[in-house]
């Protein structure tokens, strides 16, 4: 059976000193359960936070970084197309070889 407590009652006893000091939602968890900040005030390695949908990907990168990423993607795409083409050739090559074995049995 579900509890009839409201959200405010559930969060009433929770307080994170780290989030209160360095920024964050301090009333949603206790200090021991903080996933964002370590005791020195640095962001923890595993913390990713919410993704900001307003900023497009690649906003904080230089032109050279974006160009290098584009070149890598082009190379991967070219390699994939070549592999698919090679695979298609193999399928066509072996498709007609079944009819040769049935002719030798007739006597």
Please summarize what this structure is:
The protein is mainly α. 45% of the residues lie in helices and 0% in strands. The mean pLDDT is 76.
Describe, in plain words, how this protein is organized in 3D:
It is a single chain. This protein is an all-alpha fold and 107 residues long. The protein contains four helices and no strands. The mean pLDDT is 76.
N to C succession of SSEs: HHHH
User: Percent of residues in beta strands?
Assistant: under 5%
Weakly predicted, low-confidence segments? none
Please report the distance between the alpha carbons of the first and last residues: 82 Å
The count of β-strands is: 0
Topology:
Blueprint: H1 7-11, H2 17-22, H3 63-95, H4 99-102
Which features does this protein show?
mainly alpha
């Amino acid at each position: 059976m579900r509890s009839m407590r409201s959200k405010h009652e559930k969060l009433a006893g929770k307080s994170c000193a780290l989030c209160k000091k360095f920024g964050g939602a301090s009333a949603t968890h206790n200090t021991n359960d903080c996933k964002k900040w370590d005791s020195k005030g640095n962001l923890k390695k595993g913390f990713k936070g919410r993704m900001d949908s307003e900023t497009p990907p690649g906003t904080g990168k230089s032109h050279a970084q974006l160009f290098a990423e584009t070149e890598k993607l082009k190379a991967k795409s070219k390699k994939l197309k070549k592999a698919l083409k090679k695979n298609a050739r193999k399928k066509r090559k072996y498709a007609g070889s079944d009819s040769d074995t049935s002719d030798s049995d007739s006597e």
